[in-house]
Amino acid sequence: MIVAGVDDSDSSWRAVAYAAGLARRQGALLAMVYVQPLGAVTAPGVAVSMAETTSEIAEEIIGQVRESVKRLGDDFKLRWEFHTFPGDPFTGLAKAADDLRADAVVVGASERAGHRIVGSLAVRLVKAARWPVTVVP
């Protein structure tokens, strides 16, 4: 199984495309994972709003995936599934990869400048060293 992190950024869609080709060539299942951030703010109205927003993002992503798979047609022969995990991106993807027993993890390169200083999701996944990690630019 190949796990691909998707968050609706351009780099994550490139990672999903790469992972889909890899899964297809290897006859593996592609598990696309969206990590729903937990609300750090505890105000009741704000927490509910954030949960609704992240659920809407997940629904939008799954809709785009279904549309893309439909366009590819039956000849592409891609087996896929979509999962959501709560948490921060590293914890969510690591849990997904462990729970789904991933053979490999594919993520997009960070598009945020601050990650060069603090460290990106990809670097943290590589340092965890529990699965092969491919970072797609």
Automatic annotation (TrEMBL):
Coiled coil: none
Domain of life: Bacteria
InterPro entries reported in the protein's UniProt record: Rossmann-like_a/b/a_fold, UspA
UspA domain span: 2-137
Record field: transmembrane: none
UniProt family annotation: Belongs to the universal stress protein A family.
Name of the molecule in the record: Universal stress protein
Annotated organism of origin: Streptomyces humicola
